[in-house]
């Protein structure tokens, strides 16, 4: 693994963890009223597109980051659809 791949994985890690505080706060408070469902859906769709790109290019960092972001976004969507407003 060369240095540019390490930079890619570091960036992927940081991108992937951006949703963890939001998911944790939503889970803890059982409240997602302030989150826009449209924002969540756009993130899910854009992440799916990035995954197609990542797999097409064979880019591990892109695939890794977007798999994590997709998972966390789906959790937020689940919370948005199940938690009472």
Topology:
Blueprint: H1 3-17, H2 20-29, H3 37-57, H4 60-82
Helix pairs in contact: 1-4, 2-4, 3-4
Describe this structure in words.
The structure is a single chain. It contains 4 helices and no strands. It is mainly α. The protein has a single domain, classed as Up-down Bundle (Monooxygenase). It starts with a helix and ends with a helix. The mean pLDDT is 92.
What are the main properties of this structure?
85 residues, Monooxygenase, 4 helices, 81% helix, elongated
CATH fold label: Monooxygenase
Average the pLDDT over all residues and give the rounded result. 92
- Helix and strand succession? HHHH
The termini sit apart by 47 Å
Largest sheet: none
> Which structural class do the helices and strands define?
mainly alpha
Stretches with pLDDT under 50, minimum 5 residues? none
Radius of gyration: 14 Å
Q: Tell me the number of strands.
A: 0
Helix content: over 70%
DSSP helix count?
Answer: 4
Explain briefly what this protein structure is.
The chain is mainly alpha-helical. It has helices at 3-17, 20-29, 37-57, 60-82.
